[in-house]
Amino acid sequence: MAILKILQYPDERLHKIARNVMQVNEATRKLVSDLAETMYAAPGVGLAATQVDVHERIIVVDISETHNQLKVFINPEIIARSGISDCEEGCLSVPGIYETVTRAEKITARALNEKGEAFTLNAEGLLAVCIQHEMDHLVGKVFVEYLSQLKQNRIRAKLKKRLRETM
Ligand code: NI
């Protein structure tokens, strides 16, 4: 296993569109375990392959405090959604920024697990928010892009300044 480098907003590569995984194999499982290790080390509750510059439709999520309830979604789709929930979100690619985003309160997701088996999951609350947030990464969308242009410009300037200071 390895800890991978997480792309930092506003890196253009965060806007790439991920492709479907054609075959779930050993290489996929290696990537999944690296994604999980990187997420736990950060620490974070979710990570998309896009964030480590691998443009395949894979996300990992674990909202447990004990870090032992890893959920892996390969080629995820949301097949049903209902309700509205406002939740404060953060992102490992946008460190130190927390903003409220409106999303569906409940979702039904369909995906493949790391063995290549199809499953369906009903999620609500933080888990539902997290899955939606991570799936956005796969289509090149970062959560701050739900905010006003003014706010986005402020966040961009702040992160660029911080990046300069740490170089
Ligand atoms: Ni994120």
What features would you describe in this structure?
By secondary structure, the chain is α+β, with helices and mostly antiparallel strands. It has a single domain (12-166), classed as Peptide deformylase (Peptide Deformylase, Alpha-Beta Complex). The chain is built from three helices and seven strands. The protein has a five-stranded antiparallel β-sheet with strand order 1-2-3-6-7, with helices on both faces. Strands 4-5 form a two-stranded antiparallel ribbon. Bound molecules: nickel (II) ion. Nickel (II) ion is lined by residues 91-93, 133, 137.
Main beta sheet: strand number and arrangement?
5 strands, antiparallel
What is the ordering of alpha helices and beta strands?
Answer: HEEEEEEEHH
User: Could you list the spans in which at least 5 consecutive residues all have pLDDT below 50?
Assistant: none
Helix content: 25-40%
CATH class division:
Alpha Beta
Shape: globular
The hetero molecules present are: nickel (II) ion
Number of strands: 7
CATH architecture: Alpha-Beta Complex
Question: What is the number of independent domains?
Answer: 1
Kindly report how far apart the N and C termini lie.
28 Å
Report the β-strand fraction as a percent range: 25-35%
DSSP helix count? 3
Mean pLDDT equals: 96
Q: How are the strands ordered across the major sheet?
A: 1-2-3-6-7
CATH topology: Peptide Deformylase
Task: Report the structural category.
Answer: alpha+beta
* Backbone CA Rg: 15 Å
